[in-house]
Amino acid sequence: MNGAIKVGAYVVGLAVVFGGALGVGRVVGPVGDAVAEAARDTGHSAEPGAGHAAGAGAGHDEGHDEAARAPAVPGGLQVSQGGYTLLPEADEVKVGERTDFRFSVIGPDGHPVTGFTTQHDKKLHLIVVRRDLTGFRHLHPTQKGGVWSVPLELPAAGEYRAFADFAPEGAEAMTLGMDLSVAGDYRPEPPAVPAETAKVGDYTVTLAGDLVPGRTSMLTLSIAKDGKPVTDLEPYLAAYGHLVALRDGDLAYLHVHPDGAPDDGRTAPGPDITFYAEVPSAGTYGLYLDFKHAGTVRTAVFTAATGPDPEAGGATAPAGDGHGSHEHGR
To answer: Are 108 and 80 in contact (CB under 8 A)?
Structure first.
Protein backbone atom coordinates (compact mmCIF):
# COMPACT_ATOMS: atom_id res chain seq x y z
CA MET A 1 0.00 0.00 0.00
CA ASN A 2 1.16 3.60 -0.31
CA GLY A 3 0.99 6.71 1.80
CA ALA A 4 -2.03 7.98 -0.12
CA ILE A 5 -4.35 5.50 1.57
CA LYS A 6 -6.84 7.33 3.78
CA VAL A 7 -8.69 5.98 6.79
CA GLY A 8 -12.04 6.82 8.33
CA ALA A 9 -11.84 9.91 10.53
CA TYR A 10 -14.35 8.59 13.01
CA VAL A 11 -12.20 5.73 14.24
CA VAL A 12 -10.57 6.13 17.64
CA GLY A 13 -6.86 5.60 18.20
CA LEU A 14 -4.98 3.60 20.74
CA ALA A 15 -2.08 3.56 23.11
CA VAL A 16 1.22 2.08 22.00
CA VAL A 17 3.38 -0.26 24.01
CA PHE A 18 7.01 -0.90 23.03
CA GLY A 19 9.35 -2.44 25.53
CA GLY A 20 6.67 -2.51 28.24
CA ALA A 21 3.67 -4.47 27.01
CA LEU A 22 0.16 -3.31 27.77
CA GLY A 23 1.45 0.11 28.92
CA VAL A 24 2.48 3.27 27.10
CA GLY A 25 5.94 3.90 25.72
CA ARG A 26 8.06 4.98 22.78
CA VAL A 27 11.33 3.76 21.35
CA VAL A 28 13.23 5.58 18.66
CA GLY A 29 16.72 5.02 17.29
CA PRO A 30 19.34 2.26 17.47
CA VAL A 31 18.85 -1.02 19.30
CA GLY A 32 20.94 -3.99 20.38
CA ASP A 33 24.67 -3.46 20.03
CA ALA A 34 24.17 0.27 19.41
CA VAL A 35 22.50 0.64 22.79
CA ALA A 36 25.30 -1.22 24.54
CA GLU A 37 27.89 0.92 22.74
CA ALA A 38 26.09 4.11 23.75
CA ALA A 39 26.03 2.90 27.34
CA ARG A 40 29.76 2.16 27.27
CA ASP A 41 30.48 5.61 25.87
CA THR A 42 28.65 7.24 28.78
CA GLY A 43 30.07 4.87 31.39
CA HIS A 44 26.67 3.38 32.26
CA SER A 45 25.15 -0.06 32.08
CA ALA A 46 22.69 -0.70 29.23
CA GLU A 47 20.33 -2.50 31.60
CA PRO A 48 17.42 -0.37 32.85
CA GLY A 49 17.82 0.76 36.44
CA ALA A 50 21.61 0.55 36.47
CA GLY A 51 23.30 3.16 38.66
CA HIS A 52 26.21 5.50 38.03
CA ALA A 53 29.81 4.46 38.36
CA ALA A 54 31.34 5.27 41.73
CA GLY A 55 33.40 8.44 42.01
CA ALA A 56 31.57 10.47 39.36
CA GLY A 57 33.02 13.97 39.30
CA ALA A 58 32.18 17.29 37.66
CA GLY A 59 30.90 15.56 34.51
CA HIS A 60 28.31 13.57 36.44
CA ASP A 61 25.25 15.58 35.35
CA GLU A 62 26.33 15.68 31.70
CA GLY A 63 26.89 11.91 31.65
CA HIS A 64 23.53 11.36 33.32
CA ASP A 65 21.78 13.48 30.66
CA GLU A 66 23.47 11.55 27.85
CA ALA A 67 22.44 8.24 29.40
CA ALA A 68 18.88 9.47 29.83
CA ARG A 69 18.73 10.35 26.13
CA ALA A 70 20.00 6.92 25.06
CA PRO A 71 17.21 4.81 23.53
CA ALA A 72 15.80 1.96 25.59
CA VAL A 73 16.13 -1.63 24.44
CA PRO A 74 12.92 -2.72 22.66
CA GLY A 75 10.68 -5.26 24.38
CA GLY A 76 11.31 -8.97 24.03
CA LEU A 77 15.00 -8.79 23.17
CA GLN A 78 16.13 -9.48 26.72
CA VAL A 79 15.54 -12.42 29.03
CA SER A 80 16.21 -10.15 32.00
CA GLN A 81 15.24 -6.53 32.68
CA GLY A 82 15.13 -4.33 35.75
CA GLY A 83 16.03 -7.22 38.03
CA TYR A 84 13.37 -9.57 36.63
CA THR A 85 14.34 -12.71 34.70
CA LEU A 86 12.28 -15.13 32.61
CA LEU A 87 13.20 -18.72 33.54
CA PRO A 88 11.68 -21.70 31.63
CA GLU A 89 11.81 -25.22 33.07
CA ALA A 90 12.82 -26.42 29.59
CA ASP A 91 13.67 -24.64 26.36
CA GLU A 92 13.00 -27.55 23.98
CA VAL A 93 9.62 -28.66 22.63
CA LYS A 94 8.93 -31.80 20.59
CA VAL A 95 7.43 -31.10 17.19
CA GLY A 96 3.71 -31.80 16.99
CA GLU A 97 3.49 -32.91 20.63
CA ARG A 98 1.29 -31.16 23.17
CA THR A 99 3.58 -29.97 25.96
CA ASP A 100 2.87 -28.50 29.38
CA PHE A 101 5.16 -25.51 28.98
CA ARG A 102 6.19 -24.18 32.40
CA PHE A 103 8.18 -21.12 33.41
CA SER A 104 8.70 -18.59 36.21
CA VAL A 105 9.49 -14.91 36.52
CA ILE A 106 12.37 -14.50 38.98
CA GLY A 107 12.32 -11.22 40.90
CA PRO A 108 15.14 -8.97 42.14
CA ASP A 109 15.22 -10.97 45.41
CA GLY A 110 16.04 -14.17 43.53
CA HIS A 111 12.64 -15.77 44.20
CA PRO A 112 9.75 -16.49 41.79
CA VAL A 113 7.32 -13.60 41.55
CA THR A 114 3.78 -14.45 42.66
CA GLY A 115 2.09 -11.04 42.51
CA PHE A 116 1.13 -9.61 39.11
CA THR A 117 -1.11 -6.74 38.06
CA THR A 118 -4.08 -7.69 35.88
CA GLN A 119 -3.91 -5.98 32.51
CA HIS A 120 -6.54 -6.45 29.82
CA ASP A 121 -8.24 -9.21 31.82
CA LYS A 122 -5.07 -11.29 32.28
CA LYS A 123 -2.06 -11.23 34.59
CA LEU A 124 0.29 -12.53 31.90
CA HIS A 125 0.17 -12.84 28.11
CA LEU A 126 2.45 -15.32 26.32
CA ILE A 127 3.27 -14.80 22.64
CA VAL A 128 5.09 -17.56 20.71
CA VAL A 129 6.28 -17.22 17.10
CA ARG A 130 8.85 -18.90 14.87
CA ARG A 131 11.80 -16.77 13.83
CA ASP A 132 10.58 -16.65 10.22
CA LEU A 133 7.46 -14.87 11.59
CA THR A 134 5.18 -17.92 11.20
CA GLY A 135 3.36 -20.08 13.75
CA PHE A 136 2.05 -17.16 15.85
CA ARG A 137 0.38 -18.08 19.17
CA HIS A 138 -1.23 -15.74 21.73
CA LEU A 139 -1.69 -17.77 24.93
CA HIS A 140 -2.76 -17.16 28.51
CA PRO A 141 -0.98 -19.43 30.99
CA THR A 142 -2.36 -20.32 34.41
CA GLN A 143 -0.47 -19.55 37.60
CA LYS A 144 0.17 -21.79 40.58
CA GLY A 145 2.39 -20.13 43.13
CA GLY A 146 5.47 -18.88 41.31
CA VAL A 147 5.06 -21.17 38.28
CA TRP A 148 3.14 -20.45 35.08
CA SER A 149 2.01 -23.26 32.77
CA VAL A 150 0.21 -23.51 29.45
CA PRO A 151 -0.46 -26.33 26.93
CA LEU A 152 1.77 -25.65 23.93
CA GLU A 153 1.85 -27.51 20.62
CA LEU A 154 4.14 -26.37 17.81
CA PRO A 155 3.47 -28.26 14.57
CA ALA A 156 6.64 -27.29 12.71
CA ALA A 157 10.32 -27.59 13.57
CA GLY A 158 12.50 -24.53 13.95
CA GLU A 159 13.68 -21.85 16.35
CA TYR A 160 10.92 -19.95 18.16
CA ARG A 161 10.77 -16.91 20.41
CA ALA A 162 8.46 -16.78 23.43
CA PHE A 163 7.47 -13.39 24.88
CA ALA A 164 6.09 -13.00 28.39
CA ASP A 165 4.03 -9.81 28.67
CA PHE A 166 3.33 -8.81 32.31
CA ALA A 167 3.57 -6.26 35.11
CA PRO A 168 4.81 -7.37 38.56
CA GLU A 169 2.95 -5.77 41.43
CA GLY A 170 4.68 -2.50 42.26
CA ALA A 171 6.77 -2.50 39.07
CA GLU A 172 6.42 -1.27 35.51
CA ALA A 173 5.01 -3.47 32.76
CA MET A 174 7.61 -5.25 30.64
CA THR A 175 8.11 -7.85 27.93
CA LEU A 176 10.82 -10.49 28.38
CA GLY A 177 11.80 -12.99 25.70
CA MET A 178 13.33 -16.46 25.54
CA ASP A 179 14.24 -18.89 22.75
CA LEU A 180 12.54 -22.24 22.21
CA SER A 181 13.94 -25.02 20.02
CA VAL A 182 11.77 -27.52 18.16
CA ALA A 183 13.91 -30.27 16.66
CA GLY A 184 13.07 -31.75 13.27
CA ASP A 185 13.17 -31.05 9.56
CA TYR A 186 13.20 -27.27 9.52
CA ARG A 187 11.85 -25.70 6.35
CA PRO A 188 11.70 -21.90 6.63
CA GLU A 189 8.84 -20.16 4.87
CA PRO A 190 9.71 -17.87 1.96
CA PRO A 191 9.35 -14.12 2.53
CA ALA A 192 5.75 -12.94 2.43
CA VAL A 193 4.47 -11.31 -0.73
CA PRO A 194 3.21 -7.74 -0.10
CA ALA A 195 -0.58 -7.40 -0.23
CA GLU A 196 -3.22 -5.36 1.53
CA THR A 197 -5.55 -8.15 2.65
CA ALA A 198 -5.43 -11.30 4.75
CA LYS A 199 -7.93 -14.17 4.66
CA VAL A 200 -9.11 -15.89 7.85
CA GLY A 201 -11.68 -18.51 6.88
CA ASP A 202 -14.75 -16.59 5.64
CA TYR A 203 -13.27 -13.31 6.86
CA THR A 204 -11.23 -10.77 4.93
CA VAL A 205 -9.16 -8.21 6.80
CA THR A 206 -7.89 -5.14 4.95
CA LEU A 207 -4.94 -3.13 6.20
CA ALA A 208 -4.64 0.58 5.41
CA GLY A 209 -1.78 2.81 6.49
CA ASP A 210 2.02 2.86 6.48
CA LEU A 211 4.67 2.30 9.11
CA VAL A 212 7.14 5.20 9.11
CA PRO A 213 10.24 4.82 11.32
CA GLY A 214 10.46 7.29 14.18
CA ARG A 215 7.00 8.72 13.59
CA THR A 216 3.51 7.81 14.77
CA SER A 217 1.82 5.71 12.09
CA MET A 218 -1.92 5.12 11.86
CA LEU A 219 -3.00 1.63 10.83
CA THR A 220 -6.66 0.81 10.22
CA LEU A 221 -7.77 -2.80 9.90
CA SER A 222 -11.23 -3.36 8.39
CA ILE A 223 -12.99 -6.68 8.91
CA ALA A 224 -15.55 -8.21 6.54
CA LYS A 225 -17.26 -11.61 6.38
CA ASP A 226 -18.45 -12.97 3.05
CA GLY A 227 -17.93 -9.49 1.61
CA LYS A 228 -20.05 -7.68 4.22
CA PRO A 229 -18.58 -5.39 6.91
CA VAL A 230 -18.57 -6.89 10.40
CA THR A 231 -20.27 -4.45 12.77
CA ASP A 232 -20.75 -6.73 15.78
CA LEU A 233 -17.24 -7.63 16.91
CA GLU A 234 -17.17 -9.14 20.40
CA PRO A 235 -15.02 -7.94 23.30
CA TYR A 236 -11.84 -9.94 23.73
CA LEU A 237 -9.54 -9.10 26.62
CA ALA A 238 -11.44 -5.83 27.16
CA ALA A 239 -10.97 -4.65 23.57
CA TYR A 240 -12.23 -5.19 20.01
CA GLY A 241 -8.77 -5.92 18.66
CA HIS A 242 -5.19 -6.62 19.73
CA LEU A 243 -2.21 -6.02 17.48
CA VAL A 244 1.31 -7.37 17.93
CA ALA A 245 4.19 -6.32 15.68
CA LEU A 246 7.54 -8.13 15.50
CA ARG A 247 10.56 -6.82 13.64
CA ASP A 248 12.03 -9.34 11.23
CA GLY A 249 15.63 -10.24 12.07
CA ASP A 250 15.65 -9.80 15.85
CA LEU A 251 11.92 -10.04 16.69
CA ALA A 252 11.83 -6.76 18.60
CA TYR A 253 8.35 -6.65 20.10
CA LEU A 254 5.63 -4.02 19.75
CA HIS A 255 2.18 -4.44 21.33
CA VAL A 256 -0.72 -2.06 20.74
CA HIS A 257 -4.30 -1.87 22.00
CA PRO A 258 -7.36 0.21 21.11
CA ASP A 259 -7.74 3.42 23.06
CA GLY A 260 -11.48 2.88 23.53
CA ALA A 261 -13.34 0.15 25.36
CA PRO A 262 -16.32 -1.92 24.20
CA ASP A 263 -18.60 -0.39 26.85
CA ASP A 264 -17.45 3.26 26.69
CA GLY A 265 -20.37 4.39 24.55
CA ARG A 266 -18.15 5.72 21.76
CA THR A 267 -16.15 2.78 20.42
CA ALA A 268 -17.87 1.05 17.50
CA PRO A 269 -17.69 -2.79 17.35
CA GLY A 270 -16.29 -2.77 13.82
CA PRO A 271 -15.75 -2.95 10.99
CA ASP A 272 -12.71 -0.71 11.51
CA ILE A 273 -10.11 -0.96 14.25
CA THR A 274 -7.42 1.73 14.25
CA PHE A 275 -4.01 1.55 15.87
CA TYR A 276 -1.32 4.17 16.32
CA ALA A 277 2.14 2.63 16.34
CA GLU A 278 5.69 3.91 16.25
CA VAL A 279 8.45 1.64 14.99
CA PRO A 280 12.08 2.46 15.82
CA SER A 281 13.72 1.62 12.50
CA ALA A 282 13.25 0.80 8.86
CA GLY A 283 12.74 -2.87 8.13
CA THR A 284 10.13 -5.57 7.83
CA TYR A 285 7.54 -6.22 10.55
CA GLY A 286 5.12 -9.09 11.07
CA LEU A 287 1.68 -7.82 12.14
CA TYR A 288 -0.77 -10.08 14.00
CA LEU A 289 -4.34 -8.91 14.64
CA ASP A 290 -6.51 -10.84 17.13
CA PHE A 291 -10.27 -10.21 16.92
CA LYS A 292 -13.33 -12.09 18.19
CA HIS A 293 -16.55 -12.74 16.27
CA ALA A 294 -19.26 -15.39 16.58
CA GLY A 295 -17.57 -16.76 19.69
CA THR A 296 -14.19 -17.45 18.08
CA VAL A 297 -10.90 -15.55 18.25
CA ARG A 298 -9.21 -15.26 14.88
CA THR A 299 -5.78 -13.96 13.94
CA ALA A 300 -5.09 -12.07 10.72
CA VAL A 301 -1.42 -12.02 9.71
CA PHE A 302 0.26 -9.34 7.62
CA THR A 303 3.77 -8.23 6.74
CA ALA A 304 4.61 -4.51 6.63
CA ALA A 305 7.83 -3.21 5.09
CA THR A 306 8.91 0.30 6.05
CA GLY A 307 11.22 2.77 4.40
CA PRO A 308 12.66 6.25 5.00
CA ASP A 309 10.42 9.12 6.04
CA PRO A 310 8.64 10.31 2.84
CA GLU A 311 9.08 13.94 3.97
CA ALA A 312 12.83 13.35 3.95
CA GLY A 313 12.73 12.36 0.29
CA GLY A 314 12.33 8.61 0.74
CA ALA A 315 9.42 6.27 0.19
CA THR A 316 7.60 3.88 2.46
CA ALA A 317 7.09 0.34 1.23
CA PRO A 318 3.59 -1.15 1.39
CA ALA A 319 2.19 -3.30 4.12
CA GLY A 320 1.29 -6.73 2.89
CA ASP A 321 -0.14 -10.16 3.33
CA GLY A 322 1.57 -12.41 5.84
CA HIS A 323 2.40 -16.09 5.99
CA GLY A 324 -1.17 -17.07 6.84
CA SER A 325 -3.99 -16.50 9.29
CA HIS A 326 -5.73 -18.77 11.72
CA GLU A 327 -8.56 -19.23 14.18
CA HIS A 328 -8.54 -20.06 17.87
CA GLY A 329 -11.35 -21.42 19.99
CA ARG A 330 -10.30 -19.15 22.83
So the answer is: no
